[in-house]
């Protein structure tokens, strides 16, 4: 038998450390056979103690290669010309990329077969192997970065008195049963590569910055820091109904919270760009990567229909009591503006999703021809739900005819709706 190195054959005169790379290369490629006891030029040298050498090789493969590859490797002792050699048959693995422990899923740890050599795989080749093995679902794919820490995640669990340890890492999908971190783990780790960019602009256009921040680290850390930044810029305006002072923030806290969580939980993380938060004088915008999940429309999500893109991430946020199930986020945003003349807007493209929250105080302060009396009527309509003319007469101490004029103006301004006719007529805030 002639022994010649090829795409599927590797020859080693004796047991050396490089055998690990050769086995990895075969498992990550199309499989192959490694012969120990044969020189590079095909001469049979044999091995002195085949049993001990075979045990050494099997231990090396078991301890130094991840994921577990042992089920794809077979060992044989053969005798040729009165000399003992070891044949190691390696099948193509089903959980590539296989890599050297200590090197990780990086080019210096992952090898493929190229001609007669084992060579480092490129990052693109590694990503392709992961995608072919793990599928398209980003959060379940093995992370290219394996040196991860979870101080922010652990603190969040601890603050809610929820157990957090190695068992939870596996059951939550942060780590596989083989001890490999997933992209979900990367997102929740302190080393998360995705960021939030937040900015405050002067006026209604992206022209002049008043403030800007970049938030990095675990998604949970980004969530808390971004919310605090928005809260710092969520101003409160005071108005008066008679002697009663009414304080109203620019943006409802619940709307801000749900919009922020939506932009984190439902974004498409296979894109590397940042989630954007932009605060203008008249509105607050959240823009995240990833349009609507295929099959859904904006009307669907307004009705509370939800199809989660990152199910495991959503499950963790649910476990931390940050979100509720059954697609309640968008309806909550809309409900938080009940009674306001302006409503949140939802926009979606193939690759992006935007939530626009109008500034309630900017809107009320800039309505055309809205007088102080009309503002009081709008607030009264929110309070009463069904506003009668006599309610206005009593609150403002005005005549019936004056109340009728004010109501007519508000209907014409498209701020109130008149319901029914005659003595049964009442008014509601325009939805």
> Oligomerization state of this entry?
single chain
Uncertain runs = 364-369
Output the CATH topology of the largest domain.
Heat Shock Protein 90
CATH class of the largest domain: Alpha Beta
| Broad shape | rod-shaped
CATH architecture label of the largest domain:
2-Layer Sandwich
Structural class: alpha+beta
Keywords: ATP-binding, Helicase, Hydrolase, Nucleotide-binding
Domain Schlafen AlbA-2: 5-121
Pfam families: HATPase_c_4, SLFN_AlbA_2
Protein name: ATP-dependent DNA helicase RecG
Q: How would you portray this structure in words?
A:
This is ATP-dependent DNA helicase RecG. GO terms for molecular function: helicase activity. With 431 residues, the protein is α+β, with helices and mostly antiparallel strands. The protein folds into 4 domains: 9-122, Methyltransferase, Cobalt-precorrin-4 Transmethylase, Domain 2 (2-Layer Sandwich), CATH 3.30.950; 138-188, no CATH class; 196-363, Heat Shock Protein 90 (2-Layer Sandwich), CATH 3.30.565.60; 367-429, Arc Repressor Mutant, subunit A, CATH 1.10.10. Helix content is 34%, strand content 22%. It is built from 15 helices and 18 strands. A 6-stranded mixed sheet has the order 10-9-13-14-16-15. Strands 1-2-5-4 form a 4-stranded mixed sheet. The protein has a two-stranded antiparallel ribbon with strand order 3-6. The model is unreliable at 364-369 (pLDDT under 50).
